[in-house]
């Protein structure tokens, strides 16, 4: 997957190297450590840092729980004072939906019944204003608000459990040695961002990736069928299978973006030639905070189109859009559905699952 990352604008590329990347799940990194500001760490500094801090820092050698709210305090303490972490003036992008953040309980693990009701009513109002699903370009469909609250809860729970075990979340490195600004785990097969290949075991620690749960596969199947219905509605005469071929996912890459994380523009093209030639789609599920997602025909972020992916959205790109460049420029703080964040005890940030067939 993530190929052509070097074609990013230098500003966006620099923004991938925020010091918080080290602090998020690594208790051994103390407050104030790391480079100041948005500077890419010096190569010496990069060499010194352990390759997979989240795995090595934990005394049990297992990954830390990157999804849980309980680790939020140490994360907040470690936030460096950069623009990225300041809320700044209220803009359409950082505005809390419904302007309700002050009414939400400070500790979401203990919301009152009244709080839950207020939050649920607000979310119902919000849902009625929500945008409709759409075809973004040939072969690329966005299903808005597609995954139910109950299914989002299940996905979070499964990812949390799997993320804590062998083959769970870690912060991978690029070929260059720089760390990615997200936590990742793979299901089915491991994708190695350094070698840009899929493998049975991840070479970083020898772990065998857990399998993809059947429930996840069912959700993917239903989403592709739904995308076909949408295509059929717009283009009555076409065979939707030609636009978005059906697929049987055997790979799922799970990313967790903390609020300052991001992912540069890239193409997903490490799947087999056969799969790519057929245009078998990538099916991407977003949960938690919303994100600015860019997509376009080349790696130039200035020319790309932006769409906001919200919790429960499913984005599908296959066929003519299988090689679309795409990336996440930012996570929009405090935009996760409040009821979901509270019920799941979800840490601020965004969970993303991309399903592919090798
Ligand atoms: O987080 C996203 O929406 C995109 C993730 C992605 O592009 C990838 O995992 O290859
Ligand atoms: Fe991708």
UniProtKB/TrEMBL annotation:
<dbReference type="GO" id="GO:0008198">
    <property type="term" value="F:ferrous iron binding"/>
</dbReference>
<dbReference type="GO" id="GO:0035515">
    <property type="term" value="F:oxidative RNA demethylase activity"/>
</dbReference>
<feature type="region of interest" description="Disordered">
    <location>
        <begin position="27"/>
        <end position="113"/>
    </location>
</feature>
<feature type="domain" description="Fe2OG dioxygenase">
    <location>
        <begin position="248"/>
        <end position="358"/>
    </location>
</feature>
<dbReference type="InterPro" id="IPR004574">
    <property type="entry name" value="Alkb"/>
</dbReference>
<dbReference type="InterPro" id="IPR037151">
    <property type="entry name" value="AlkB-like_sf"/>
</dbReference>
<feature type="binding site">
    <location>
        <position position="266"/>
    </location>
    <ligand>
        <name>Fe cation</name>
    </ligand>
</feature>
<feature type="binding site">
    <location>
        <position position="268"/>
    </location>
    <ligand>
        <name>Fe cation</name>
    </ligand>
</feature>
<dbReference type="InterPro" id="IPR027450">
    <property type="entry name" value="AlkB-like"/>
</dbReference>
<keyword id="KW-0560">Oxidoreductase</keyword>
<dbReference type="Pfam" id="PF13532">
    <property type="entry name" value="2OG-FeII_Oxy_2"/>
</dbReference>
<dbReference type="GO" id="GO:0035513">
    <property type="term" value="P:oxidative RNA demethylation"/>
</dbReference>
<dbReference type="GO" id="GO:0035516">
    <property type="term" value="F:broad specificity oxidative DNA demethylase activity"/>
</dbReference>
<protein>
    <recommendedName>
        <fullName>Fe2OG dioxygenase domain-containing protein</fullName>
    </recommendedName>
</protein>
<dbReference type="InterPro" id="IPR005123">
    <property type="entry name" value="Oxoglu/Fe-dep_dioxygenase_dom"/>
</dbReference>
<comment type="similarity">
    <text>Belongs to the alkB family.</text>
</comment>
<keyword id="KW-0223">Dioxygenase</keyword>
<dbReference type="GO" id="GO:0005737">
    <property type="term" value="C:cytoplasm"/>
</dbReference>
<keyword id="KW-0479">Metal-binding</keyword>
<keyword id="KW-0408">Iron</keyword>
<feature type="binding site">
    <location>
        <position position="326"/>
    </location>
    <ligand>
        <name>Fe cation</name>
    </ligand>
</feature>
